[in-house]
Amino acid sequence: MNSTNHFYEKDNCSYYYTCREGKVTITGFSGYESRVEVPEQIEGAPVCIIAKKTFLGNKHLEEITFPDSLEEIGDWAFAYCSKLKHVTLPRKSLRLGKDVFTNCPALSEIRFADGEKPNVAKHLAAAATIMEAPYLLDFGACHTPEWMEQWDARLQTIVNTPDEEGYYLQVLCGEEDYGSTDKGAYMSGRRSRKIRLLFLRLLDDLEKPAGFKTWMERYLLDHTKGCESEETWTIIHKEHGRDKAYYQLFAGIGCLTSENLPGILDDIKDEYPEMKAYFINYAGNGSDGGDFFAGLDF
């Protein structure tokens, strides 16, 4: 085969491809499947490259698995895939283009075909999306002590960056590009990004440098229910109401207090009965210190 565009169908999916020097490059894709397994070979030649923009803006894709033959993923290959949650790759160094996973808000795991701890998959996904740190997508080095030092350094940079930084670009570009030019909403979004990352890091089972855990918890405490800004509670309530590990951590580090409990229970109403029961039980056991229920009126 030569470099002329060809067409291949498998599992209700259509691939457009070229073949040059015995290697297949996927240049286009169409299909409505939510789970896609890219073929390892097409017409006897290994699939090695995903060209730029191949899956750009796909509205159906939720999971995709790549073969061991993969060597390269091009620019913006999965940009704006709004439902993409899980990506499975071969465990080896890959050439990655620019902004491969940009604007993939649902992406929660980049994992390896031979298995990996969930921590690795989640940290890689965060690096590719909300951390905007493509240099961390080093699949050979991920989760080495040196790699985690880089991950933590990026986290610190993000958290320590003022919430208003970059706002002027939103104003210059206008609402048609960002949806709003409200400064308060912009800054709240920046804090929410920080809090998602802090929860992710606190909930992993990896070693944390001296003082780092305390620093992360302090930020969450500064933005819990009853503070000037309440994004810590908002993230728990809106995104993790059914995730016990998250709301256990929320209570355990002191974000649940006798002062904010009534407001929290009022926010929950009947939406998340298990979380509500846990908070009431936690308070009743006196984990807050002293008489947690003193002065409360339910």
Would you write up a description of this structure?
This protein is of the alpha/beta class and 298 residues long. It contains ten helices and eleven strands. The strands form two sheets. Strands 1, 2, 3, 5, 6, 8 and 10 form a seven-stranded mixed β-sheet that branches. It has a four-stranded parallel β-sheet with strand order 4-7-9-11. Helix 5 (183-203) packs across helix 6 (212-221), helix 5 (183-203) crosses helix 7 (231-239) and helix 8 (244-252) runs parallel beside helix 10. The longest helix has 21 residues, at 183-203. The protein is elongated. Residues 288-298 have low confidence and may be disordered.
Helices and strands, with pairings:
Elements: E1 6-10, E2 13-20, E3 23-30, E4 35-37, E5 41-42, E6 45-50, E7 63-65, E8 72-73, E9 86-89, E10 95-96, E11 109-112, H1 118-128, H2 145-160, H3 167-173, H4 175-178, H5 183-203, H6 212-221, H7 231-239, H8 244-252, H9 261-268, H10 273-284
Helix pairs in contact: 5-6, 5-7, 8-10
Helical residue percent band? 25-40%
Question: In terms of per-residue confidence, which ranges show pLDDT below 50 for 5 or more consecutive residues?
Answer: 288-298
Task: Give me the Rg, rounded.
Answer: 23 Å
Number of strands: 11
Number of helices: 10
Strand pairing plus helix content: what structural class?
alpha/beta
Portion of residues in beta strands equals 15-25%
Query: Helices and strands, in N-to-C order?
Result: EEEEEEEEEEEHHHHHHHHHH
Main sheet record = 7 strands, mixed
The gross shape turns out to be elongated
Q: What number is the mean pLDDT?
A: 89
What is the first-to-last residue Cα distance? 74 Å
